[in-house]
Amino acid sequence: MEKDTVSLLRLALIQTASLGKALFPENHLLVVSRFRVSSPKIPRAFDGARILQLSDLHGTRFGRHNARLLRKVTAENPDYIFMTGDMVSRTDRDHTPFFEVAQELGRRFPCYYIAGNHELDMPPARLNAFYGRLSSCGVSVVNNQTVRLRKNGGQILLSGLCVPLACYPEAKHVTRHCKFTMEEMDRSLGKPDSGGYRILLAHTPLSFEVYARWGADLAFSGHVHGGMIRLPFAGGLLSPDRRFFPKYSAGVYERDGCRMIVSRGLGSGFFGARILNPPEIVAVTLSSGPEWAGKESEFTRHRKDVHL
């Protein structure tokens, strides 16, 4: 009986969301959330480096040819752009809205891409064609790869994780679901070298404990869409696997020396609308200094407190 009640409540929320874009104008907004991450492991050459994260676009357009999104990103003038998956939806047959973005940004900025569950749910031939077109746009696909970001003699390691589709609880086209483990992490990316600052791109934040144990210093994730509905003082309401109050839905999280930034994403995904949860571009500035991570607006106050 309790399960039936919960299922009915979930269904009612999803049906309500079908009216959400009309009732809640924030679906048409586009905000930039600014964060600062500081660590003594960040090379001085990267002090002030700016990263933009785009996630979970799901084929959404912001203006004709995605002009509003492109203007916002270009105005930030980032050093790097990380695209953390689900920029298209599994059911899309036309990926033009996303490639309008990828082609322009890949031409102007270093861009790195990892797959989300929606890309992995595409037929293999279509997925390979998708990756090929990304490469032709100048976007580097880093699924289960590690690359070196170099700047003025310093370097940061960037690892892209492709979480298997079977590890997403909501995945329908798998015969058996599994939990993402430390062993799977090592198989995907190997054991990290000691030393150096390491950034991890991982579409889902649900395995944060594994990312921290593996040795990531900073992780970028998305997937949860901010919980679709954000409630004051409570945070995100619903995750893609239809669970209430997901543990990680938006903002900065810390565990065992690892910081994780979770984007609220850009598109609406399975829910169809966003409520009290405007689409988000994440902007992160790196600093070489004492360990700290949080909103950019809080960084100056934190720095003053450190010097007192």
The total of beta strands comes to 15
Largest sheet: 7 strands, mixed
CATH top level assignment: Alpha Beta
- State mean pLDDT (0 to 100 scale): 88
Strand content: 15-25%
In spatial order, strands of the major sheet run 5-4-3-2-14-1-15
Structural notes for this entry:
- By secondary structure, this protein is an alpha/beta fold.
- The chain has a single domain, classed as Purple Acid Phosphatase, chain A, domain 2 (4-Layer Sandwich).
- The protein is built from 9 helices and 15 strands.
- The chain has a 7-stranded mixed sheet with strand order 5-4-3-2-14-1-15. A 6-stranded mixed sheet has the order 6-7-8-9-13-12. A two-stranded antiparallel sheet has the order 10-11.
- Strand 10 and strand 11 form a beta hairpin.
Layout of strands and helices, then pairs:
Layout (H helix, E strand, L loop, with lengths): L1 H16 L2 H4 L7 E9 L10 E5 L12 H10 L3 E4 L12 H13 L2 E3 L3 H4 L3 H13 L2 E3 L3 E7 L2 E8 L20 H8 L8 E5 L5 H7 L3 E4 L8 E2 L3 E2 L14 E5 L2 E5 L17 E9 L3 E4 H12 L1
Parallel strand pairs: 1-14, 2-3, 3-4, 4-5, 7-8, 8-9, 9-13
Antiparallel strand pairs: 1-15, 2-14, 6-7, 10-11, 12-13
